[in-house]
Amino acid sequence: MLRYTLMRLGIFVGCLVVVWGLVHSGLAPRGLGDSNGLWIVLLALLLSAPISFVALRKQRDVASEGIVRRVDRVKANLEAHRNQEDAADDAARGEGRARTS
Description:
Layout: H1 2-25, H2 36-55, H3 57-100
């Protein structure tokens, strides 16, 4: 997951540098008034998203498999704890019935 995130961040930073160069050289339009920095970031986001989607498909699949494994492990742990609680509750109720009889 960390590798995918760092690769995605790297693509964004690369796009940010390219967009910054294009805006300051006059090949891309400047933002309105003082919004030039925000304009550069938005253009970089717009460019990096589809590039990341296509270029990092394999890494995204590996990261999602890791997330699914973690979620499944947490669900199994929760179910095991729930079963332990049910067994303890049933045992406590059984002792209560034995005392009243």
